[in-house]
């Protein structure tokens, strides 16, 4: 059996989808260590993992991409965040390697310094991506703006122009920084990368937590990129007592676990659904994330008065709520959106930034829900979108079936074990 060291970026939206994979590895007899958010380490230790916190300085580098006015600016902001964190997560992983002496490394796609350190270590290693990675693929629009696929010559021309304007501009900012980090962290051993694709594909294996039909077909990605379906995990907790008293169909409203000022979704949903035959459950987890932005989000009392058919929670297990939900209104986070779809619950997606525009585009393409622009977020339009989404349950169930067929954590563990055997 192998000793596995997993390293996550500082967001529960990246940690939680990785946990089922780590649980599968542990169940197969592997010794699993993880470095992650300090608040989550005790829970993971109770679950039987060897868990420890990432360097606290990583958490202090706050993601501010939600302030950007367009996709190019948002991606550029993410480059600033991930390269700043890389100064800390590279030596942090190096220390963890020295402490654990692993046979296999599993590194979050957003931990850019740790990725370079893993590549330098000479060990078998893989990337874990809880969202669709920004890799080029024939027939797929460039990552960022959330463009719908457009076949034919016109679509190829549009995508080529958009790729130059968005990805090309971001690469000009990213490549000097990432190549300087590669030279510095590896002591000059690693060669420079030529673009975003070559950077994200430095690992011998990338596991992606999604699958068709939610994700677009990518026959040109090759065997080193494996889609294993949506992976769900929540800290062990029973359903809240108040849930047994609810008789009306539920609408779950989610916001990001990493602060992005998306509480407008909750405000609008409370106004839109007041008096409707639903019980609204809204969660605002960013207040417990520990960032400066989260501190601004802390008080639920700022949403007063709350309609009689609604509940506000910092956190509640989504699973029991989704089991009785008619619709989920999400911010477009991959974890929250796929969690709903994996239970056959259609969604209304209101993207604010990050990968959320891409998630929203895939929801529409899969006919599993409705996309509503942040600029058009009004109670009237949100209510209409909810009623429209109710009719998308068949598409949501097709997506759920696709996730199950992809193999999940077992498929991911198989791929990781193959990687270790091939390295040996």
The CA-CA distance between the termini, in Å, is 13 Å
Shape: globular
Number of helices: 15
Provide the CATH top-level class of the largest domain: Alpha Beta
- Overall tally of domains: 2
Name the poorly predicted regions: 288-298
Count all strands and give the number: 13
**CATH homology superfamily name of the largest domain:** Glycogen Phosphorylase B
Cross-sheet strand order for the largest sheet:
3-2-1-4-5-6-7
What Rg do the Cα atoms give?
21 Å
How would you describe this structure in keywords?
424 residues; alpha/beta; Rossmann fold; seven-stranded parallel sheet; six-stranded parallel sheet; 15 helices; globular
Describe the structure.
With 424 residues, the chain is an alpha/beta fold. The protein folds into 2 domains: 3-229 and 407-423, 3-Layer(aba) Sandwich (Rossmann fold); 241-403, 3-Layer(aba) Sandwich (Rossmann fold), CATH 3.40.50. The chain has 15 helices and 13 strands. The protein has helices at 12-27, 41-46, 56-59, 71-100, 112-120, 152-186, 196-200, 264-273, 292-296, 318-322, 334-342, 356-365, 379-390, 393-405, 408-423, and strands spanning 3-7, 31-36, 50-53, 104-108, 125-129, 205-208, 225-227, 250-253, 279-283, 310-313, 325-330, 347-349, 369-371. A 7-stranded parallel beta sheet has the order 3-2-1-4-5-6-7, with helices on both faces. Strands 10-9-8-11-12-13 form a 6-stranded parallel beta sheet, sandwiched between helices. Helix 5 packs across helix 6 and helix 8 crosses helix 13 (379-390). The chain is globular.
């Amino acid at each position: 059996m192998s000793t596995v060291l997993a390293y996550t970026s500082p967001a529960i939206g990246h940690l939680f989808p990785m946990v089922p994979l780590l649980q599968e590895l542990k169940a197969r007899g592997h010794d699993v260590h993880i470095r992650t958010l300090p608040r989550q380490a005790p829970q993971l230790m109770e679950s039987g993992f060897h868990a420890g916190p990432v360097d606290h300085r990583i958490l202090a580098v706050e993601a501010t991409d939600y302030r950007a006015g367009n996709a190019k600016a948002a991606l550029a902001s993410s480059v600033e965040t991930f390269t700043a964190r890389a100064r800390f997560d590279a030596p942090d992983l190096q220390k963890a390697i020295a402490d654990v002496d692993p046979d296999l490394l599993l590194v979050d796609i957003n931990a850019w310094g740790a990725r370079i350190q893993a590549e330098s270590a000479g060990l078998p290693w893989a990337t874990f991506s809880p969202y669709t990675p920004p890799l080029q693929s024939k027939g797929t629009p460039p990552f960022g703006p959330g463009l719908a696929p457009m076949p034919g010559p016109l679509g190829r021309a549009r995508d080529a122009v958009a790729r130059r304007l968005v990805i090309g501009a971001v690469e000009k900012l990213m490549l000097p920084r990432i190549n300087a980090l590669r030279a510095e962290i590896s002591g000059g051993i690693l060669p420079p990368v030529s673009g975003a694709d070559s950077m994200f594909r430095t690992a011998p294996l990338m596991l992606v937590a999604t699958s068709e039909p939610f994700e677009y077909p990518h026959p040109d990605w090759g065997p080193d990129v494996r889609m294993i379906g949506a992976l769900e995990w929540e800290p062990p907790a029973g359903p809240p007592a108040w849930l047994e008293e609810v008789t009306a169909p539920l609408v779950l409203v989610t916001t990001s676990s990493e602060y992005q000022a998306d509480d407008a979704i909750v405000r609008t949903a409370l106004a839109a659904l007041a008096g409707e035959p639903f019980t609204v459950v809204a969660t605002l987890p960013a207040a417990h994330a520990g960032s400066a932005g989260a501190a601004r989000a802390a008080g639920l009392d700022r949403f007063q008065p709350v309609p009689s058919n609604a509940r506000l929670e910092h956190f509640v297990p989504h699973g029991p709520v989704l089991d009785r939900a008619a619709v989920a209104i999400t911010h477009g986070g991959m974890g929250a959106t796929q969690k709903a779809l994996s239970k056959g619950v259609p969604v209304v997606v209101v993207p604010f930034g990050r990968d959320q525009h891409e998630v929203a585009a895939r929801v529409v393409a899969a006919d599993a829900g409705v996309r509503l622009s942040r600029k058009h977020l009004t109670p009237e339009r949100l209510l209409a979108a909810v009623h429209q989404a109710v009719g998308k349950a068949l598409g949501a169930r097709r997506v759920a079936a696709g996730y199950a067929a992809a193999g999940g954590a077992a498929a991911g563990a198989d791929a990781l074990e193959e990687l270790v055997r091939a390295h040996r």
